[in-house]
């Protein structure tokens, strides 16, 4: 019994640690795997803006198309850009790992399990957290991942975002409040200074869709489980009623 309790404790500790680790991210999002339109748009964004560098090696085009309700011909025409890939193939990238290591110092990671590793709040905040920083090799930095090496691939959609100063009631370390207004100057506010193809609210929705898709990719079977769960509960209820009536019939003569 003690061994079982210890095993349960060790199983719970990592979950608690992950939940605590996600508390520092500035934004939160709740994945909705039932929103098919969101998942479809997320897959489109991923293939067009992320899959040049980041593979999804544990996911197949065919599986995603089946789960998300995308016809095979649309996937082959609009989401498979390499002649080396077919509909039933895994979502590999064309970039050679050796070349990627020589270009970037390390090959870009596969993102199949990224949502399970870091959490959707982290991914959502990370994609919204890029800002202009001329001191960096790529010209950008990130509020969630400082000194990030990845460029802001979504900049054409979002536009150029910069850190600006704004008044706040919250105390700022090493700073005294203004004697007249009693407010502090916070210079970590993100603001789009050069608009992109999308309005800020529209871009946030696009980032939500992209993060939602990564949540699906991390556990594709969850969609099937959610669809099956009501049927299982109905079966258990009906079976329970039948089992109860059968029990009453068997024990009628005993009592």
From TrEMBL:
Coiled coil: none
Binding-site positions, heme c: 50, 53-54
Domain of life: Bacteria
UniProt keyword terms in alphabetical order: Heme, Iron, Membrane, Metal-binding, Signal, Transmembrane, Transmembrane helix
Gene Ontology MF annotations: electron transfer activity; heme binding; metal ion binding
Gene3D superfamilies reported for this sequence: Cytochrome c-like domain
Cofactor(s) demanded: heme c
Example of a GO cellular component annotation carried by this entry: membrane
Signal peptide coordinates: 1-19
Membrane-spanning ranges: 228-246
Cofactor details (free text): Binds 1 heme c group covalently per subunit.
Family matches, as InterPro entries: Cyt_c-like_dom_sf (IPR036909), Cyt_c1 (IPR002326)
Major localisation: membrane
Subcellular location: Membrane
Record protein name field: Cytochrome c1
């Amino acid at each position: 019994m003690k061994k079982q309790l210890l095993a349960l404790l060790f199983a719970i500790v990592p979950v608690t640690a992950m939940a605590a680790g996600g508390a520092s991210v500035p934004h939160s999002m709740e994945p909705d795997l039932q929103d098919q339109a969101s998942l479809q748009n997320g897959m489109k964004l991923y293939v067009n803006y992320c899959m040049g560098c980041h593979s999804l090696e544990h996911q197949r085009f065919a599986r995603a198309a089946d789960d998300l309700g995308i016809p095979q011909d649309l996937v082959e025409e609009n989401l498979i850009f390499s002649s080396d890939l077919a509909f039933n193939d895994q979502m590999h990238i064309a970039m050679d790992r050796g070349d990627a290591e020589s270009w970037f110092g390390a090959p870009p990671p596969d993102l199949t399990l990224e949502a399970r590793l870091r959490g959707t709040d982290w991914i959502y905040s990370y994609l919204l957290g890029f800002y202009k920083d001329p001191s960096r090799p790529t010209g950008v930095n990130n509020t969630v991942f400082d000194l990030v090496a990845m460029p802001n691939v979504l900049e054409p959609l979002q536009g150029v975002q910069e850190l600006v100063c704004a008044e706040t009631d919250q105390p700022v370390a090493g700073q005294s409040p203004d004697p007249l207004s009693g407010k502090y100057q916070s210079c970590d506010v993100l603001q789009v200074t050069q608009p992109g193809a999308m309005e800020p609210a529209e871009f946030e929705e696009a980032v939500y869709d992209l993060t939602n898709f990564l949540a699906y990719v991390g556990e594709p079977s969850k969609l099937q489980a959610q669809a099956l769960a009501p049927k299982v509960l109905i079966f258990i209820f009906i079976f329970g009623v039948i089992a109860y009536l059968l029990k009453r019939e068997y024990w009628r003569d005993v009592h």
